[in-house]
Design a protein that fits this description.
single chain; 767 residues; alpha+beta; Beta-Lactamase; 6 domains; five-stranded antiparallel β-sheet
């Protein structure tokens, strides 16, 4: 509240350059309008209005009433000033009670009010109460806003007290039951009004509902109301009837003061415990611990300023009671710099900045490592006790431990993130199996191998994920033991999409008391290697078979001509030479195909092929390919007119010969191969349909792979290298077209060569 008042005064008194010409009253009015919007000032204004209204009721409604208890024998001219002084002294006897960030001041003011109300007429009693409060405010130099709030609150409460005492007890002249009832009711009403007004301010400052403040403080306020009433009533009666006993009334006053101080200590301990509990949570969570430590420790020990420096090069952090949550960064104050390296708590009372009376400095160190220092300063005369200094030193050590723990946690988190990145980005599958064979870690590479996401794999049995029978699970998936913790195994799995994968599992297990703690398994996908090895074996078997097929008749007829050629008829010799030539040509084509296939890698570069595209009649090319095969099993259906296509005529004949020959090879001797033509927009199609055994759906694309055979090379019933369709598709794509396949098991297959059309759209059937 001091900040608000200072801001108001500054705006009224200090004029900006552009405001210099404005009258003082206009500037004051502007400042008032600005601060009227402040919620605290609005509450203070409301309390002041209430006090003024009830005070007016006392003054106007009881003009001629006398005092409740007469017979003091002191003239009114002396009695009123004396009671004003007594009321001021009672208000100065202050015990401060904390309410979070707000402070309530408890005093013997209520006891003095009872004396004023019983010994003075209503108007004079109100005057003594208000004058004593104003005098105490001037003596203590209280902030204007706080003084205004107290004046309004106490004026309203005193007015209610006066009204109830006089209405219920009247001017009896002695203590009667109605007087006692009036004093009791008035005291309770005074306490209720005071607590309700105070709850409005405390609730706003601490961010709670006013009713919450009333409930938490009602019991203490009731006890204190009864105590002060008893003290004031007893003192008044003794002063009237046995003045010599007045010195002994100091004991009840001291007892009430002691009760106030005990309540204040209890409230301080309660507030401190709440702050330290929050601090323990902050230190345990290790998030922004330095700022949390500074804010909470300053609040716990009711310091006005807190400063902490835990970095030799970085700025110091500070916080003040005026803005308890606004931590500022800046250089270390000069009065603290000499004590930055102090290795024990230090208390300073001299050579301090204006306004500060006491500073406690504690080192922030733990586990033999010094991190910095923390200092807490107070503007009050109260010194921090030795126990509090010891507690502050312990908290400094706790902060150092928490900071080191935060550093370790940060490094651990960083290392864990690195390890997690290695695991997730590894090309090898990584799996961790815990006790019971349950999966604990499952990385992305393993998801790619097996097809099961990590979210579905974690926590499930490894045998279930890799689809291994229970009787083989121990041998294949958990072959480790205490004696043999490192083992490598291989197994074949089938993914959910039906694809088979060959995996190598390298186990590295940890045991404790003969029980498996974890098994770290690095999994390599050997599928490509196994396929390459199988492809190599198949290629050797296929090439051996294909090369042996033409070589056998060549060698046989060459041997026949060498041994019996002179006795053979010319026709037989011609037939033998013709067969040798045909087989040699077949062998030459086989070698040429192998050489051509070797020019392609896994991703063939079409530009490396010698393809000379031009405009050709596709119908003529198809007829030539059919005639070259010289088979009456080929049935051609082609238009009479020319269909112009952009292609290489020689390569196109090679592709069509391969497709038609493939159909003849895989069809029975009594089945025909149909060759037809169709067009679709600017694409010309040549369909080659056979009536063979068909190709499985999972091999429709694989037949276009290099050296792939649908049949097992060791038991194949048809000849071929497995590169014909591979070469056919690559040549077609090099010419801007493609070769596709449709097939049904036990029905047949249809291979289609598609080439781009050239020139105007040709007439003919559309597909």
């Amino acid at each position: 509240m001091e900040r608000l008042v200072l801001g108001l005064v500054a705006q009224v008194v200090t004029a900006e350059p552009h405001d210099a010409g404005r009258p003082l009253l206009q500037r004051a009015a502007g400042a008032v309008r600005a601060y009227v919007r402040d919620p605290i000032l609005r509450r203070v204004a409301g309390v002041g209005t209430l006090g003024a209204g009830l005070g007016a009721v006392v003054v106007l409604a009881m003009p001629g009433r006398g005092s409740v208890l007469g017979g003091s024998g002191v003239p009114m001219a002396w009695l009123v000033p004396g009671l004003v002084v007594l009321t001021c002294l009672a208000e100065i006897t202050v015990v401060r009670l904390r309410h979070g960030e707000a402070v309530e001041e408890l005093s013997l003011y209520e006891a003095a009010l009872i004396i004023d109300v019983l010994l003075l007429p209503p108007r004079h009693a109100l005057l003594a109460a208000v004058a004593g409060l104003v005098l105490a405010t001037l003596v203590q130099r209280r902030p204007a806003v706080k003084a205004a709030f107290n004046l309004g609150t106490y004026t309203a409460a005193v007015s209610v007290l006066i009204l109830l005492v006089h209405l219920m007890g009247g001017a009896a002249g002695t203590v009667t039951a109605p007087v006692l009832a009036g004093v009791l009711a008035g005291t309770l009403a005074f306490t209720a009004v005071n607590l309700c007004c105070l709850a409005q301010i405390l609730g706003f400052i601490n961010g709670v509902a006013p009713w919450t403040v009333i409930r938490s403080e009602a019991r203490l306020s009731l006890y204190m109301a009864v105590g002060t009433m008893a003290t004031g009533l007893t003192t008044t009666v003794i002063a009237l009837h046995a003045p010599l006993l007045l010195p002994f009334m100091a004991m009840p006053a001291l007892a009430v003061t002691y009760a106030y101080r005990a309540a204040a200590r209890e409230a301080d301990e309660r507030a401190r415990s709440a702050c330290l509990l929050q601090l323990s949570h902050a230190l345990a969570e290790r998030e922004d611990v330095v700022r949390q430590f500074l804010v909470l420790v300053r609040e716990a020990f009711d310091a006005d300023v807190g400063v902490i420096a835990v970095s030799e090069t970085g700025p110091a952090l500070s916080v003040a009671a005026a803005e308890p949550s606004a931590v500022q960064a800046g250089p270390l104050p000069a009065y603290l710099a000499p004590w930055r390296d102090a290795d024990a708590p230090v208390q300073l009372t001299e050579n301090l900045p204006a306004g500060l009376r006491h500073v406690v400095i504690v080192p922030v160190e733990g586990a033999g490592r010094r991190l910095g220092m923390a200092a807490f300063a107070s503007r009050s005369r109260r010194r921090i006790s030795t126990g509090d200094v010891t507690l502050l030193a312990s908290l400094g050590n706790a902060l150092a431990v928490a900071m080191r723990g935060a550093e370790h946690l940060e490094r651990l988190t960083e290392e864990r993130s690195k390890l997690q990145a290695v695991v997730e980005q590894s090309a090898e599958g990584i799996m961790v199996i815990g006790a019971g064979g349950l999966v604990q870690v499952w990385n992305q590479a393993l998801t790619d191998f097996v097809g099961t996401p990590a979210a579905e794999a974690t926590g499930r049995p490894v045998g279930e994920l890799l689809d291994v029978p229970a009787e083989e699970e121990r041998e294949l998936l958990l072959p480790v033991s205490v004696d043999v913790p490192r083992v490598a195994t291989e197994l074949t799995i089938r993914r959910s999409d039906g694809e088979e994968r060959r995996l190598r599992l390298a186990h590295s297990a940890i045991f404790a008391a003969d029980e498996l703690v974890r098994d770290v398994v690095v999994i390599s996908d050997l599928t490509r290697e196994y396929r390459t090895e199988r492809l190599k074996s198949d290629f050797i078997a296929m090439v051996s078979h294909e090369l042996r097929t033409p070589l056998t008749p060549i060698m046989g007829y060459v041997d026949l001509l060498r041994t019996r050629g002179e006795r053979m008829t010319p026709q037989k010799r011609l037939d033998a030479l013709t067969l040798i030539g045909d087989r040699a040509a077949h062998l030459s084509r086989l070698v040429e195909d192998l050489l051509l296939a070797s020019r392609f890698g896994d991703n063939p570069d079409e530009a490396s092929l010698q393809v000379n595209t031009a405009t050709h009649d596709l119908v003529a090319i198809v007829r030539q390919a059919v005639e070259d095969l010289r088979s009456d099993r080929v049935v051609l259906s082609a238009p009479e007119e020319a269909w112009l296509a952009r292609c290489d005529s020689g390569r196109t004949v090679q592709v069509l010969t391969n497709l038609i020959g493939n159909g003849l090879k895989y069809s029975a001797d009594d089945r025909t191969v149909e060759v037809s033509m169709r067009r679709d927009d600017r694409i010309l199609h040549v369909d080659v349909r056979d009536r063979g055994r068909g190709i499985p759906s999972d091999s429709l694309e694989k037949v276009f792979e290099k050296f792939h055979r649908v049949e097992d090379p060791m038991t194949m019933s048809t000849s071929g290298t497995g590169i014909g369709l591979f070469i056919a598709r690559q040549l077609a794509r090099a010419m801007g077209g493609d070769v596709t396949l449709e097939s049904t098991i036990n029905v047949g297959s249809r291979f289609t060569l598609a080439l781009p059309a050239e020139g105007p759209e040709p007439p003919g059937p559309r597909s």
